[in-house]
Structure formats: C-alpha cells, structure tokens
Amino acid sequence: MSLPQRLVIATRASRLALWQAEHVRDQLRTLYPACAVELLTLTTRGDQILDRTLSKVGGKGLFVKELENALLDGRADLAVHSLKDVPVDLQAPFELCAVLDRADPRDAFVSNRYASLADLPAGAVVGTSSLRRESQIRARFPALVVKPLRGNLDTRLGKLDKGDYAAIVLAAAGLERLGMGERIRSLLDPADSLPAAGQGALGIEIRDDRDDMRAWLAPLVSADTTACVLAERAVSRKLGGSCQVPLAAFAQIAGDTLSLRALVASPDGTRIVHATHTGPVDQAEAIGEAAASELLDAGAAAILRELLHNEPH
Fold it and tell me: Within a domain: residue 194?
C-alpha cells in the first residue's frame, strides 16, 4: 500500500475542536513523516446557534454537517470529532473508521466558590448544556436550580466567572485537553453522574469508499475504547438517542470482560431507570442492545414516549 502524500483534516473552529484535530495531525505526522497534514477549519450550525439548547435546534448532527460536506466534495479526507457529538445512526456514504484512546470520561464540577455539588446551598444555579447531566443533578439535589449553558468552553467558563452560575458541570476531558485541569474542583463519580456514550473519546469520520484512508488510520485505533463506545452507542441507537433524551451509557473493560452501565431519565430527574450488563469484549454491541432492552422493559419506554409527545414539531 502506498503512503499518503497529503491529508486534509476537517475540524470545527473552537479551541477544543482545534486541539483534537491537531492531536490527530501530530499522530499522523509521526506515522507518515513525508506526508503534509493540513487542517480545514469550518464553522458549523451548532457553533452559530447559541441562544437555544441543542435539543431544541436539531441536536448533535449540527456539529458534523459542514464537516461532512467537506468530505463529500473532496476538500477534506477525514474529519475529527468528539465522539459524543457524532450521531449514532451515521449514514452512508460516511463511516466512523477510527476511535482513539479515551481521555478521562467523567464529568467535572467547576466552581469559584464551592468544592462540590453537595456543598451548593439550596437555590444555587448550576449550568449545563446536557439533559443527561441535568436529570442526574436534579435527582440527587432537587433543591438546586439547573439552567442551560451553551457556547464553547471559554464562553461557558466566562459565564461562570461573571457570576451567572454558582457552578457549572462540564466534560473533564475538554478542560484537561486545553490545559485547564486546575479549574476542576471535583470529578463526579460515574455512579453519581453517568457519562454520555463516547464521552472523552475522539472519533475519525471518512467517506466509506476511502479504503486507503481506512488503512492509513488503522494504527490510531484503540481496540478497548472502540469496544466500549460500540456498546455505549448501541444503547443510544436502540433507544433513538438524541439530545432530547436524558440518556447515559458507560462501559469499562477488565481482562476479557466488558461491563456496561446505562440509564434513561425524565428531564426533571424524578424518574431514572438503570441497567447493568456484562459480557465478553467481542460481544460489545450485543451487550449494549441487551442493556437498552432492559431499560425499555424497566420503564424507559414510557419516559421516551412522553418526551417524544412533548417534542416541538
């Protein structure tokens, strides 16, 4: 197989997205020293609409559309995404061909005044962009006020520093990647704040007719992270996971065994349905589907029906 001469990576323009693309660029330059690896920086609809929550403006696909157009028309060879932004029902002619080693998958508590969620006084305002986080916070701390928080990482931290929120909850991986780990006051145990499917992992998307790209990117693939996110995304796919659904799924591997925890909640946190499944690593997708079925039988179906009924049309 011939080696690549020039590769173009499509990326969003945010500081975190650029870090992710540069991280992949640096790995490709190490693998293929003679290859020119360039970035194509694009602004997506998800980056432009900041006055409404994602669940109200079309969900996570808003962050990938413009990058996919660049893959389609040949301006880019690959697109780098935070995996939790990639729709689980990725359609042809696109393919998620590589999942890299996962960073810390946990949620992070960030505050200038308080050390943890438990330290916040009743009525304190917590900011988050995620219904998944919101429902779990409301379930544990019903006296707190949870308000939406959109924008890139710097924007969100700026709103906290301005005093709009007593605390905010973000993905730990993003803060650590941008060298802002010192802003984390505490990390939320997955038992208290179960992560989103794919949280902390980077995924690379290509056109599905690019066999050359698949082969060139193969050395970047993490087998363990791939298995974990396969299980997690299978839960999301079977439940029709979108930004409108407070849904969490988190897998871990010990030896040859994969353990998966998943939940579906009502946005107000009054109802949460849990499922746990374990099995051989090579059965990752089946484990995810089994967990999803268990959730549906245990009450998630009723929650999902309700959410669907209340969705704006």
Answer: no
Residue 55 and residue 28 in one domain: yes
> Each residue of 211-264: pLDDT tens digit?
999 999 999 999 999 999 999 999 999 998 666 789 999 999 999 999 999 999
The whole-model pTM stands at 0.91
Q: Is residue 193 part of a domain?
A: no
The yes-or-no answer on residue 212 being catalytic is: no
Residues 53 and 144 in one domain: no
CA–CA separation, 127 and 312 (whole Å): 23
Number of structural domains (the chain) is 3
Q: Which residues form the domain of 111?
A: 107-187
- Among the listed residues 85, 208, 224, 282, the single catalytic one is 85
